[in-house]
Amino acid sequence: MTTRRAVLEALREAGSAGVSGEAIAASLHVSRVAVGKHVAALRAAGYEIAAAPGSGYVLASAPDLPLPDEVEPLLETAGFWRDLSGGRETGSTNDDARELARTGAPEGTVVLASRQLRGRGRLGREWESPDGGVYLSVVLRPAVAPLEAPSLALAVALGVARGLERLGATPRLKWPNDVLLRDGKLAGILLEMSAESDRVEWVVAGIGVNVRRPADGAASPVAAYLDDAAPGVRLAEAAAAELDGIARAYAEWLAGGFAALRPDYEARFALAGQAVTVRDLMGDVRADGVVAGVDDEGRLLVRAADGGVVPVTAGEVTLRG
Ligand code: BT5
Questions:
Q1: Whole-angstrom Cα distance, residue 269 to residue 284?
Q2: Pairing, β 115-116 against β 89-90
Q3: Per-residue pLDDT for 321 more than 90?
Q4: In the structure, which protein residues have their CB atom closer than 6 angstroms to any atom of ligand 1?
Q5: In whole angstroms, what separates CA 201 from the centre of its chain?
Q6: For atom 33 of ligand 1, which residue has the closest CA?
Q7: Which residues contact 109 (CB under 8 A, 6 or more apart)?
Q8: Contacts of 79 (CB under 8 A, 6+ apart)
Q9: Which terminus of the chain faces fewer neighbouring Cβ atoms within 10 Å, N or C?
Q10: What distance in Å separates the CA atoms of residue 153 and residue 117, rounded to the nearest whole number?
């Protein structure tokens, strides 16, 4: 733990009773001046810290942002995640995490943001990323062949859904990579990877979750917001819940493949029995029919009019009618 984090923890523990700079300095074996500098840095980062005569410092409020200092103490899977960074504005957390992965960042590295200037969806589409959302990307290094990677997107989506359930939401999953709440899109997932022919080198999984409706009425018409199901939820809580869900689903996926997650995925599956058209990345129709489920490899099973079942590995699903 950094000294700054330790000072913050001391302030949190003291609560409204407060704690003197001297007491913090003594417990951390640093100088009183050093404590003062860390308090100043925390204030600059948005923490409101009162200095009451007699009782010392009192932490009055913490910024409602997915800052590493806010997210990390809430993690139940802190042993898996490492080197959390960011938490404010960036271009795209996927770009940041790809750069880290390319330069050797270990599995479990996390980049966080509360706003993105160039948020990306799949196929060059835009991901609207205003204030009030949680945008994060993680570096994974699964020892699998590239062919096994597509179902990892489903595992991540399931992990996000399970994590957000802890906050009181009941999300549903739209194959392959959407997390829905009621009729809107609560979260989107973008997996990017680097691989040799027989081995994945790294995967960057990026997740955007809409938490609060933008104040200026600029809400996306297709979006759903976590705050509607979990009123007052803080961005750091949402980030920690997502990360816990992802870490656990990823461990299960590594141990047992998508087959191990399939019952839980199907329990949240929004497409069962729906009439759909599935197009491939070129826009050509790959399957047309009624969704019969997903298989152990995570492929979407579509029953065509002639009764034949078409398994689809990748594509874009639209509901018919
Ligand atoms: C996705 O793409 O759903 C993947 C989105 C991944 C975003 C994360 S945020 C952290 C990381 N950094 C990045 O730069 N990206 C990742 P796709 O399936 O292509 O869906 C994109 C479509 O969703 C758009 O064409 C819009 O129709 C819709 N959309 C855009 N922004 C949205 C939002 N905030 N909420 C709901 N829907 C949105």
A1: 24
A2: parallel
A3: no
A4: 92-94, 116, 119-123, 125-128, 135-137, 177, 185, 188-190, 206-208, 210, 220, 222-223
A5: 21
A6: 128
A7: 82, 83, 97, 100, 101, 138, 139
A8: none
A9: C
A10: 24
What 3-state DSSP class applies to 70?
A: helix
| Residue in 94, 115, 127, 190 to alter for ligand 1 test, most ligand atoms within 8 A of Cβ | 127
Residue with tokens 């984090």: 5
- Residues 6+ away with beta carbon under 8 Å from 5: 69, 72
Cα 316 to Cα 123: distance, rounded to the nearest angstrom: 11
Work out the average pLDDT over 237-261.
98
Q: 66: which 2 tokens? A: 């997915």
List, in sequence order, the alpha helices (H) in the chain.
3-14, 21-28, 32-44, 68-71, 93-102, 150-165, 226-229, 235-267
d(CA 267, CA 269): 6
Q: Helix and strand tally (H, E) in the chain?
A: 8, 16
Q: Residue 175 carries which side chain, given as an amino acid letter? A: W
pLDDT tens for each residue of 144-183: 999 999 999 999 999 999 999 999 999 999 999 899 999 8
Place of tokens 């997932």: 189
Give per-residue pLDDT as tens, 9-20. Answer: 999 999 999 999
pLDDT of residue 52: 79
Structure tokens at 232: 């007052």
Q: What percentage of the chain carries pLDDT values higher than 90?
A: 91
